[in-house]
Fold this sequence. Notes:
The complex is a heterodimer of chains A (121) and B (106). Chain A is built from no helices and 11 strands. Chain A has 121 residues and is mainly beta. Chain A is globular, with a radius of gyration of 13 Å. Chain B is an all-beta fold and 106 residues long. In chain B, β7 (62-67) and β8 (70-75) form a beta hairpin. Chain B is globular, with a radius of gyration of 13 Å. In chain B, 34% of the residues are buried. The model of chain B has no long low-confidence stretch (mean pLDDT 96). At the A-B interface, β5 and β10 of A face β4, β5 and β10 of B.
Amino acid sequence: EEQLLESGGGLVQPGGSLRLSCAASGFTFKNYAMNWVRQAPGKGLEWVSVISFNVGRTHYAEAVKGRFTISRDNSKNTLYLQMNGLRGDDTGVYYCAKSWDTAMDDALDVWGQGTMVTVSS
Amino acid sequence: DIQLTQSPSTLSASVGDRVTITCRASQSITQWLAWYQQKPGKAPKLLIYKASGLESGVPSRFSGSGSGTEFTLTISSLQPDDYATYYCQQYNSLGLTFGGGTKVEI
């Protein structure tokens, strides 16, 4: 069974940093682009970032560009999101999600259960 | 970025009803549209890809149609398990975007 398991969320002060991880299992991780999607409390889904299957390319939403960095370790089947300069509007549940195929612009067919990030003083 | 507008934002329906949700794109996305179902406290679940492709394991009462800028998700006969929020998502270009969501309630 294809699974994604996020970790690393928590409470952080404005301006602080946090690193999220997403462990993949049940599929050949290195063959797929991977994404982060977030959801503020009571709000809709917002795509955050994507990384290509071969680690060569990344893309970010304007709201996080320059503050967040997506990366992956294909030898460990793990996706990461380094979040710096956190703000209150970064609060929400962060999901990692697998692209349906190798393309970076794709439907998202496997999702983790999410990890909560709260930015507050 | 491409904007997606869903309507209605909330929909009240009864078990057995035929339900239709619309998603309009700010520019043509050909057929690169997906639909997701999300229940409270849970991750989204892919229902439809490429506008009309039914994801494996999804009941056949769900169907998608459309191309260009206008798309629909139809539930042919609403079941109790279908009460949830539904989102469309475009993947025509990088900078994936989601619609605002449609909550289907009793």
